[in-house]
Specification:
The protein is of the alpha+beta class. The protein has 18 helices and 16 strands.
Amino acid sequence: MFQALKLGFPNSISGRFSAVSHRVPKFSVPSYLNTAMAPKRYRSSSQASAAQNSDNATSIDVPIPQKNASKTSDEQSGVVVEDEPSVFEKMTLQEMKSSLSSNGVAAKGNSKRKAKGLSESDQMQISNKSSPDSGRKRTTRKDKQSPEDIADIESLHRATEQELIVESTEMEGEKSIQVKKKVSSRITTTNAKARVSVDNSVDEPWTVLAHKKPQKGWTAYNPKTMRPPAIAADTPHIKLLSWNVNGLRALLKSESFSALQLAQREDFDVLCLQETKLQEKDVDAIRQILLEGYDNSYWTCSVSKLGYSGTAIISRIKPLSVRYGLGISDHDSEGRLVTVEFDNFYLLNSYVPNSGDGLRRLSYRITEWDTSLSNYMKGLEQSKPVILTGDLNCAHQEIDIFNPAGNKRSAGFTDEERNSFQTNFLDKGFVDTFRKQHPDVVGYTYWGYRHGGRRTNKGWRLDYFLASESIADQVYDSYILPDMGGSDHCPIGLILKL
């Protein structure tokens, strides 16, 4: 089935983080350079004290220049060296390198010395470029591109940068603390980004078991691993899909969903919609934009409260008969039920009344609606098996709701509603097909918008396919499509072998 509603529907990370230990190398220079580069308030100390401290700063014995020494000519480089500290400040990098070489001092880290007069951000760039180690480490890591390695590369890069920056700022004395704080902040931010980038669970939150009181053996529903292989094309079957769209007109304008893509992916034969929120005057316009192949559509709208409730069945198989409502005026003014008859069964699409805020409709729900619907189904069952689908507005068991203890008096999970569901439907021989196939699986079909429940998979299972016992064993797959957006509910499906 490659065509569905021509409704113009637009289109429908735990990772390992490697810790890198940071080793801050000591950087030391000859005493006379320390004197030259130190802030003015440090230059007042005697030259003898500087010479004494130089033993701790470097392992190379360097002659202490005399304060009034004359100029010395460097025959190899032709550079004239003065022993006054001010002269070193005027030297270029090449002149300083030549001078140090002539005095027997290794000329390493010259780029850092030159960076003395630059801003802190410039020092960071120079330090990073002048480190052969950081370049080698990054080159090695680039060979691997897994999410974990990407995190390692980023962390290692920052760690190397930290060593170089701290190394260069030790010459700066009082400024070093400020630079270290800046580096620490940058590393913390980088680590946080790396953790988020490898968190794959964000894309499929339903695969994470989310329940306040999970029981032993419960697992999260994952349609990628829990659905059976595609049914053989030569096996007679019918595919049914059901979805509370929470306003069809809003869904038509949504950019997060495509009915065409859903139809191509699921290849359904019949689509049942609840809470369309249409008025009767809107139906003809919707019918005009149905895609080719889905020529049979049956709509019922609320007349007691406009833009409320509403159900529809859209099918590429023409049914034998169609009925609207329960045949009881007290129940039929809100457009909550459509029944179609096929060769092998009756299909009922229902949007069961919600008990409402303050449970104001609880009594009506359990004493009138549920009993009337149950009796209607049993009457139909006298001639053919029955399948009831839709938003039945009841999380039957604790496994069907994220927070059972906190919702004991919430509409959809009261003891009265759960007992009514059991008494009027399950005890009368109608099978919860999803729970039969997945007895210990936590799978939700509704997530409230208010607290972002879908993002954290804190939901309810309110949508069902209930089937007569006589055809329950013909169910090939009863499934949930939690990845489909566009509503606070997601679609559910049933594949029935004929």
